[in-house]
C-alpha cells in the first residue's frame, strides 16, 4: 500500500512554518510559483511580507508566530481555516541549530533546541490532524536532518532533536497510512543557510536552499515517505548507521575532521 502523492500544487493550501529564510523560504517561493496558496509562518514578519509581495492577490497569507508558543500556533491555524476553509499540506521547516560539544554543553540551549525542533512539529501536527483525519486526506511533511541518523560531532542537542523527528515520522506514517493521510520525513544533508553558516568545518556535498526545495516538493508530489538528499551524502550516512559501533566511530573520527 503506497501513500498518496500530489498531482499538482496548483491551488493547494500549504502552510509553510519556517518560511522566512533558508529551505523554508525556498519552498515557499517555489510553491507560489507553482500556483499554491501559501500560509507563511515564522517569527520574522518583515521577511514574510517580503515573500508575500511576490504572490498574486489572496495567494499568500502571512501568519507570524513562534513554534514554541502554543497559543500563537493555535491562533495561526484558526486564521488559516477561517481564510481558506482547510489545509492540504503542512510543511514544517522551522528549526534551530547551535553547535554543541561535551566541553561546551549548555542545558538551556539543549532545552530550546528540543522545544523548537521536536515539540514545535509535534504541536503543529496535533493542530492539523483532526481535520485531516476527518477528511481522510492531507499531507504532513516535516524537515528533520541526516544528523538524526546517528551521533555526529557538534550536534549534542541538534542530533537528538532530529533523531526524535525520525521516530515521530515513522510512527505517524504507521498510524496514518490506513487513514489516507500522507507523511513525508525530510532529511537534508548540508544546505547553505543562515544556520549552516555557523559551521567552521568543510561541509561535504553542500547544496543550495533552492536545490533542497526542489527535492522536497518533488518527493511530496511522488508520495515519498523518506525524502533524503543529496543522495551521495545521505546514502553514505544511512550506510554508517548499520555498522558496528567501533567501526562507525573509527570512520567518523577519520573523515569528520572537527
UniProtKB/TrEMBL annotation:
InterPro entries, A to Z: NAD(P)-bd_dom_sf, SDR_fam
Q: Which Gene3D superfamilies match?
A: NAD(P)-binding Rossmann-like Domain
GO MF entries: oxidoreductase activity
Question: What keywords would UniProt list here?
Answer: Oxidoreductase
Identify the domain of life.
Bacteria
Pfam family membership, one: adh_short
A GO cellular component entry from the record:
membrane
Classification via SUPFAM superfamilies? NAD(P)-binding Rossmann-fold domains
Q: Which family does it belong to?
A: Belongs to the short-chain dehydrogenases/reductases (SDR) family.
Name this polypeptide is given: Short-chain dehydrogenase
Task: Name the source organism.
Answer: Polynucleobacter wuianus
Which lineage ranks, top first, belong to the organism behind this chain?
Bacteria, Pseudomonadati, Pseudomonadota, Betaproteobacteria, Burkholderiales
Amino acid at each position: 500500500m503506497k501513500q498518496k502523492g500530489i498531482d499538482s500544487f496548483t491551488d493547494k493550501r500549504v502552510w509553510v512554518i519556517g518560511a522566512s529564510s533558508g529551505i523554508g523560504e525556498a519552498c515557499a517561493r517555489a510553491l507560489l510559483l507553482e500556483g499554491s496558496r501559501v500560509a507563511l509562518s515564522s517569527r520574522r514578519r518583515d521577511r514574510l511580507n517580503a515573500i508575500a509581495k511576490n504572490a498574486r492577490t489572496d495567494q499568500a497569507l502571512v501568519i507570524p508566530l513562534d513554534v514554541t508558543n502554543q497559543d500563537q500556533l493555535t491562533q495561526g491555524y484558526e486564521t488559516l481555516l477561517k481564510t481558506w476553509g482547510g489545509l492540504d499540506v503542512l510543511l514544517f521547516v522551522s528549526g534551530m541549530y547551535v553547535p554543541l560539544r561535551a566541553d561546551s554543553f549548555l542545558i538551556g540551549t539543549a532545552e530550546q533546541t528540543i522545544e523548537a525542533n521536536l515539540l514545535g512539529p509535534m504541536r503543529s501536527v496535533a493542530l492539523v490532524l483532526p481535520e485531516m483525519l476527518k477528511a481522510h486526506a492531507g499531507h504532513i511533511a516535516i524537515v528533520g536532518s541526516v544528523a538524526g541518523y546517528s551521533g555526529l560531532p557538534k550536534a549534542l542537542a541538534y542530533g537528538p532533536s532530529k533523531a526524535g523527528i525520525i521516530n515521530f515520522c515513522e510512527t505517524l506514517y504507521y498510524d496514518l497510512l490506513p487513514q489516507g493521510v500522507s507523511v513525508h520525513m525530510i532529511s537534508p544533508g548540508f544546505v547553505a543557510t543562515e544556520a549552516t553558516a555557523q559551521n567552521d568545518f568543510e561541509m561535504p556535498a553542500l547544496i543550495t536552499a533552492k536545490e533542497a526545495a526542489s527535492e522536497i516538493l518533488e518527493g511530496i508530489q511522488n508520495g515519498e515517505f523518506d525524502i533524503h538528499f543529496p543522495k551521495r551524502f545521505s546514502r553514505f550516512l544511512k550506510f554508517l548507521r548499520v555498522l558496528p559501533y567501533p567501526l562507525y566511530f573509527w570512520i567518523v573520527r577519520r573523515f569528520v575532521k572537527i
